[in-house]
Design brief:
The complex is a heterodimer of chains A (about 210) and B (about 130). Chain A has about 210 residues and is an alpha/beta fold. Helices cover about 35% and strands about 20% of the residues of chain A. Chain A has a 7-stranded parallel beta sheet, with helices on both faces. In chain A, helix 2 packs across helix 8. In chain B, helix 1 packs across helix 2. Chain B starts with a helix and ends in a 17-residue tail after the last strand. Classes of the chains: A alpha/beta (about 210), B alpha+beta (about 130). At the A-B interface, strand 1, helix 1, helix 4, helix 6 and helix 7 of A face helix 1 and strand 6 of B. Strand 1 of chain A pairs antiparallel with strand 6 of chain B.
Amino acid sequence: MAVITIERKVLERNDVFAERNRALFARHGILAVNMVSSPGSGKTSLIERTLEHLRSSVRIGVIEGDVQTTLDAERIACYGVPAVQILTQGGCHLEAHLVAQAADSLDLGSLDLLIIENVGNLVCPAGYDLGEARRVVVLSTTEGDDKPLKYPGMFRSASALVINKIDLLPYVPCRLPDLEQNALQINPTLKIFEVSCTTRAGIADWCHWLCARS
Amino acid sequence: MHELSIAQDVLQIIAQYVPSPDHGRVRSVRMRIGALAGVMTESLRFCFAVASEGTAADGAQLEIEAVPGRARCRACQDIFQPRDCILICPRCHGNCVDLVAGNELQVLELEVEECTAAISSGENAIPPGC
């Protein structure tokens, strides 16, 4: 019987690809942002509002991640920015090697900002570094103010929280102060934005932070 | 989490050392898994058993070394064992806490028998491209 010593992280392959991505984006001066949330919170809508606000002054590319369909990439393409769709065909999260493949399809030299929309899932994407500079979690008011406590891993891994659908607050039991308190309890460094992709409320502040390079 | 995907990642690592049943049969895989890594060990065992069929690790036992969570409060420097993923210092109730241990997900070693061909050293384990 032979004993082979390995002592390797299970996810090291992803970490290697993530660091390659990170170096690639840095070489091109690109700010890469990984957007995560549960399905239906409004990630794609937030990207659309962001494009409306910034595309005339910031060169933006988008990588869309979904289990099936190219619907999201088609929505983004309507704004005249380069968009690449990753289809995981069952995978519940994006991984760094998939992002690397998608980035190959983009002219990185012509971009300032790369937005990566992850598969809708508040659990698994937390464990996979894609090589992003910032991770943003989107949570809508219709999901409830207790979600940061229920999914601490995701909220702890993020640098910003965008609370979407604030226009629906009069109609849902979500209490905004409780939601923000819960989120900051998990991650006291979270930068929090309150937006509505329907009314455009809060979008300017979100875009201002997004473009800041500090 | 997605234990099948993790099992497949483990098997990819194993295959870099024991590429096929012709190279040997893996009898056990020792892993270190932290309590806060988000991995259900029984699900992982099930998925590993399914995913390893036909490989050199077919029938291999997963021996899991569990690591309890340990965290350090940045405010009062207390080191404590968190009960869950919500990291609050029990002494000062601060939430500026760093996880010191409990997030591990590693393959430590393999026990391999019936070696009939040279076992790879696992060098160049990371593919050069996508």
